[in-house]
Every structure is written in C-alpha cells, then in structure tokens.
Design brief:
The chain is α+β, with helices and mostly antiparallel strands. It is 45% helix and 17% strand. The C terminus is likely disordered.
Length: 107
C-alpha cells in the first residue's frame, strides 16, 4: 500500500494514497519528503474569512496612509504639473460618483 504525507497546521500524518482527496478536502496539504508542499489543500471558510478581513483592514490602513501623504504633499492646494484645478462643483460631483462606485467623466 502506497502512503503519502499530509500536513494541516502542525499536524502531520501518513495516510494511504487512496484517501488523498478526502484529506485535501479537509484542508490538509500533501507534502514531500523534504517538507515542500506538493498539493495545497482546500482552505476552510473560517480561514478564508479571516484572511479577507485582514486584507480589508490592511487596505483601509493603506488608504488612510495615502490620504495623509496626499494632504502633506499638497497642503496649499498647489496643483501638480499637468493637472487642472477642478471647480468646487466638479469635485463634489466626482466625490458623489466615487461614493456610488462609478467612474466620473469629469476627472
């Protein structure tokens, strides 16, 4: 009987090769003799949700950091070369469209 090594978290097991699909579906990864991952197991919904939450949190942090840099780079409203200064009304329209998730043609 042929056996393979599977790993999930810090749990490593030797299993019959005919049970490989079952263990992959449970989130185990097939690993080689040197410990490298040969086949990645399916991640659980809990793991995927926690990764998504962490990614969204990081995106929010980076967006806040970007706003700080943009405000620091242009505190007096001096426009960058090649950019046109938009009127207040155009900026309001752009912000409204941005909130709705649409791209404005005015920018």
């Amino acid at each position: 009987m042929d056996t393979i090594r599977v790993l999930r978290g810090n749990r490593e097991r030797l299993i019959p090769s005919i049970e490989k699909e079952k263990y992959l579906a449970e989130g185990y990864s097939v690993i080689g003799d040197d410990g490298t991952v040969l086949e990645q197991g399916v991640k659980s919904n809990h793991t995927l949700k926690s990764e998504l939450e962490a990614a969204n949190k990081r995106i929010t942090e980076l967006e806040a950091e970007l706003r700080q840099y943009q405000e620091a780079a242009s505190p007096s409203g001096i426009e960058e070369p090649g950019e046109e200064q938009e009127s207040g009304e155009e900026q309001e329209i752009f912000q409204e469209e941005k909130k709705r998730g649409r791209k404005s043609g005015l920018a």
